[in-house]
Amino acid sequence: MSLLPPCPRCLLSEIDGQTVYRSVKAYVDSLPEELRAPAELVRSRLAVCKSCDCLLSGMCVKCGCFVEARAAKAVQHCPFTPSKW
User: Cα 42 vs. chain centroid, distance in angstroms?
Assistant: First the structure.
């Protein structure tokens, strides 16, 4: 497995060959339905994250979360700038 430099505007799902993505996806998939955000809300949250300067290789450099995991939970918000989502 070759190590690629971090992609500053990529989500984990877009970084090929990363076991971290599989772990985050497994976590999201294991969330009970009542805790999950609707798919459209998740997509819109991730679109905001992808345009944010704080995204680095699927993680928020301000809070350290995996944005795909945070966006998947209904009651979450952006801890850095709650008005973003």
Answer: 9
